[in-house]
Design a protein that fits this description.
Oligomer: single chain
Shape: globular
Radius of gyration: 26 Å
Strand content: 5-15%
Structural class: alpha/beta
Distance between the termini: 82 Å
Number of helices: 21
Largest sheet: 5 strands, mixed
Length: 531
């Protein structure tokens, strides 16, 4: 294999003078633009964050926990999870880290009396920065393992794709796990076996137990190759695992107010009870024919060539394929469940791109291959822009509550009810920016019932069918805003760009008519109406 360093040592007589000079300048430029690539990753992460600032239901626990740690501190009774605990408990360790890192910046928020929603940008930026720090370490190990050209292509490929950059700042449990997973990959490639075991124990015990498959297969490969001894696995892994278990049980039992190992309960719920299938199932091969092509985009075509040409790539990919194969037996599937494999797969794609780049001056055919390699980068960016546009329109609840704050005066007496759909598509405690207003997320209130009449405003999902479900509000409320969201995308060659994203109504903002009575409850608990 030719690394970039080997290419630089080729005698000048083997090339025409101008070609060799161009080659030298190319690699010299790589060192000049090293920080430029790093800054580009940060800029891309921030761009995704700014364009899609709201969050969805999968991110809600960690986001609400960070909010409560910042604004309620030790008053656990006021925490969101005490009212809305979710299906399974999640760990507070990740939110505590983000809240602590955010605390030095909070005084600016208090001093300038800034909108509370700004803090949501801040905490997501800090989370994205932690992922980028871990990615930087991983990229450094790839550079030492394969050469700097592979490292450059790894960064370019990652920049051109959607999901890694998009997930970096999203408060998913998988994102917190991705940080430690990247550190684990770094220690593995750097041959720091003890730290690899410690980082693996931390991510498996605290954040995502399913990573025991991927990291376990990596450890097994190291044992078989003789680079890792079983006694080291036992001697380091068991104490590290017990220490992490003690940490998560101690911290999370305090916040959940009962003895709990969150990831243990998640493992039991998803694997042994198989309850995750209640949220939908997919065919066994779904990760291979749907998730991976969407995550890798056109870079996926370079992976088989790297697998064939370089044994070191095969060492990286065997655990990846083994993990996805085994995890495919779980009926409920989401792309974020295998997000940890994307950096490793991108490293394989980068190895092929680097090989093509290093050989670009050898023949006209190799020069043509370079153009195709650059074209794949452009195609990835086009696909990413389409997916990002779709994602921008996927948070109707967040945009609806922002519209409410812009429509109604801050000093008005507003009591708003937020339905489940809106709470799942962008509404968080960070969006509750007016301390004078009352925000309510009580579920299963009957449409048109007395309880719901106590609210001055309603944020409600647009009815899926044109039935009479919202007729109770035709005489009692006025529609003051309709928020549109993503419907579908299609191709229309009469427009530019020819690919169009179509929207449809998603959220209704209703305001109770002043002439209609509201609900009151007297001291005896008897409900009545008042004008």
């Amino acid at each position: 294999m030719e690394t970039d360093d080997e290419v630089k040592q080729i005698p000048e007589t083997q090339f025409e003078s101008k070609d060799y000079c161009y080659l030298q300048i190319s690699f010299k430029s790589n060192s000049y633009y090293k920080w430029g690539l790093e800054l580009s990753l940060y800029a891309c992460m921030i761009g995704h964050l700014v364009l899609c600032p709201y969050t969805k239901v999968e991110e809600s626990f960690n986001l609400q926990a960070i909010h409560d740690l910042i604004f309620h501190a030790g008053n656990v009774s006021q925490y969101d999870h005490m009212e809305f605990p979710g299906v399974v408990p999640r760990t507070f360790i990740g939110p505590i880290v983000i809240a602590v890192l955010s605390s030095p910046f909070l005084w600016i928020h208090w001093l300038l009396k800034m909108d509370k929603f700004i803090i949501q940008y801040l905490v997501r930026f800090i989370l994205g920065s932690l992922v980028l720090v871990a990615f930087h370490k991983f990229k450094g190990s790839i550079e030492k393992h394969f050469g700097s050209v592979v490292s450059v292509w790894l960064q370019l490929i990652t920049l051109s794709q959607f999901h890694i950059m998009y997930y970096m700042s999203r408060t998913l449990p998988n994102t917190f796990a991705l940080i430690l997973a990247l550190f684990s990959f770094h220690f593995w490639l750097a041959r720091n076996q003890r730290m690899f075991i410690v980082a693996s124990a931390a991510v498996v015990v605290v954040f995502r137990a399913e990573l025991s498959i991927l990291l376990g297969l990596i450890a097994l490969g190291e044992v078989i190759s003789g680079r890792l001894k079983i006694l080291t696995v036992i001697g380091v892994g068991i104490p590290a695992g017990l220490w992490m278990l003690g940490l998560t049980v101690t911290v999370d039992s305090f916040f959940w107010m009962r003895p709990v190992w969150p990831e243990g309960e998640v493992l039991w719920f998803n694997i042994f009870l198989n309850k995750s299938s209640e949220w939908g199932t997919s065919p066994w091969a779904w990760y291979f024919y749907s998730a991976l092509p969407r995550a890798l985009l056109t870079s996926i075509f370079f992976i088989p060539f790297a697998f064939a040409m370089d044994s070191r790539v095969r060492v990286i990919l065997y655990p990846v394929f083994g993990f996805i194969l085994v995890y495919s037996f779980l009926p409920h599937k989401e792309l974020r469940f295998i997000i940890y494999t994307i950096p490793l797969l991108n490293a394989a794609a980068a190895r092929t791109c680097a090989q093509i780049w290093n050989n670009r001056l050898k023949s006209t055919f190799h020069g043509v291959l370079v153009h195709f390699t650059c074209l794949h980068f452009a195609l990835n960016i086009c696909a990413t822009l389409l997916i990002l546009t779709i994602s921008y329109h996927n948070y109707a609840g967040g945009y609806a509550i922002a519209k409410l704050h812009s429509i109604e005066s801050a000093d008005k007496d507003v009591n708003v009810h937020i339905d489940v759909y809106c709470a799942q598509t962008g509404v968080s405690r960070f969006t509750e920016i007016n301390p004078r207003w009352r925000y309510n997320k009580t579920e299963n209130l009957p449409l048109g019932g007395l309880e719901i009449m106590q609210f001055s405003h309603l944020l409600m999902e647009w009815p899926k069918n044109a039935d009479s479900s919202h007729l109770p509000y035709l005489n009692t409320h006025t529609i003051i805003n309709i928020t549109h969201g993503y419907s579908h995308w299609g191709v229309d060659f009469s427009t530019f760009p020819p690919i169009q994203v179509f929207l449809r109504p998603r959220v209704l903002l209703l305001k109770r008519n002043l002439s209609y009575p509201s609900l009151i409850v007297n001291t005896n608990g008897i409900k009545s109406l008042r004008s």
